[in-house]
Amino acid sequence: MGQTTQTTEPLIRTELRDRVAVLKLDRPKQLNALSTPLVDRLDEELNALRAERAIRAVVLTGEGRGFSAGADLAEIGSFAETSAPSARFRDLVGHLTEVFQRLQEHPLPSVAALHGFAYGGGLELSLACDLRVAERGTQLGVPEMKLGVLPGAGGTQRLPRMIAPAVARQMILTGQPIDAERAHTLGLVNELAEPGRGLDAALALAETLAAGAPLALAAGKRLVDAAVAGELRQGVGYERETVSVLHSSRDSAEGLQAFQERREPRFTGE
């Protein structure tokens, strides 16, 4: 996406804790807004971890009041002063999408430790992680509709794959957030933690992941992604073929006969 903007901000702080790497978004004064330099640094740190054989899992967290307030609106606003603001915005969205996809496809399992808020691009970043831990009271949302736009870094695609499409649609079309407790009920958040304990809970979960076999972990990530990433038409076609095969099995015939005879079926796996 061109040259990285020079900055004196730390942007990302990396800490290695035994088998887990903690990557902390570190722009607390800007509510960890996802500027191009920050996203570039995140991409670089994630890429560097591929060569760290001792590291088996990654935790993403944020410094200050919350995980991330989303895309850097100041940076986006500056595009108006350029000769091609639409092209600059398209490039930014494309860059975010590519980095988040690389995070999702990273061989190391990842856990997002959420606190305070995860809005817009911040929530989309967490959706690219394998698992999410959130402190009670954390607000999660995609408020882009309130700005006359939509989530542009995978939010409209990942969110409906993780929770009921009707709920995802409501979040996207209204821009209203949900709290961590409801997100946990919906399955968007894997574990809840008490305020101030989110990182500890995420580290404990990451340590559990780190104890797994690296090749199996990477393969498991790929298989789960493949299971949920297919297009509806492909999924329905696969479902149709699978059900057709099952219908010709002995168990299927036994099930139908047992139903007609009003008894429990005796399945044999044939």
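The record above closes out task 2.4. Task 2.5 opens with a second protein, given below.
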Amino acid sequence: MRGEDDNLTPQRFSPKPLVMYLVVVGLVFGLIGGSAVTALSFRIPAGMPLLIDRSRCPVCSHPIRARDNVPVFAYLWLRGRCRDCSTSIPLRYPLIELAGGAIGVVAALYPVDGIDKVSCGLALLIGLTAALIDQRTFRIPNRLTYPSAILLLLLGVVNALSTGRWTSFVATVSLAIAVLAFFIVIRLVSRGGMGLGDAKLAAVLTLGLASLGIWSVALAILASFFAGSVVGVSLMVVKRSSLRTQMPFGPFLTLGFVVTALGAGIYHL
């Protein structure tokens, strides 16, 4: 019987006959989540309402019909053009939706069950939203990270209430606080080289994926720094940047957690 001493030890993954079912479900919900990410990554920096207003064509301002919001398939059906004004729909929209689908598959393979799996998927979709915003604006807004942290904490409370694993919940929150403090220290040492938005995003991602334990979170953070270093050095080699060139870290942070979660899922298959 699993007790509270398990802390952050992951639950066993679902039986293998269910893997394909979980992957399909994860893909569908990931595509839907990718569509939401597309809207949020535009609305949050612009200060627009997040849930009330319907999506509109940025050229003709006509509300987008429900059938034209079906992820990826609507883009193919419309041949990449607005139904009302025939303006080309940017290719990045279906690509973001496909990225969301991929995240859904990663969450489906993530070797935990129940609410922990949902938290993983939500955290990675939040990370994708933050990466897109950071890449464009060089900042990760509190309007994204604060509500996301509250949502993941609530999911953690629900999980603890349903399973009785309060020690695991406390350990997860403690780990997220430790990660936040770690990134704040890096910011102080680098004299602003690391943004507070990056620190908050790292804590949010930790809340969603801490169920695999401290070392997995540490590996995800290490992978993000490694990816950022490789890209930074590569850009300097081709003379596209210098040591003083500003580079968003949100995309690399999200990538580190996605790769770690995927690796854990593949390992436990």
